[in-house]
Fold this protein.
Amino acid sequence: MAKSLKKKGVLIIDYLNVPVAEKQLVPSVTKKFVDVHFEISRWQDNTHFYKKIDVHDSNNNFHHSYTRKVRTFSDVDFIEMLSGQMMHLEAIFDDYFLAPYDLSNTLRMILIAK
């Protein structure tokens, strides 16, 4: 990452806050738009969050399934990864308005590194 930045460049990472995401995880949702059905399921293991979306029409003429996998990195994980790139974490914020980061209530982590 460090080599990709311009001299004196700043790295901004927008990532989920794992403890809050775990608390707010909605296991399943079903939605319908016109004749298309979406069945969304979410789960996690020790290292990842998963989101599976099954899409099908009312007549069952088509069916597609998509799965997204997101690693559960913590702020400490990012500090270690950044130091491995000879970078350091300047700040962590709650949002793009630079509200203070709150580990137990913030849904996002906006990390600023140099």
Observations:
- The chain is about 15% helix and 45% strand.
- Residues 75-84 form the longest helix (10 residues).
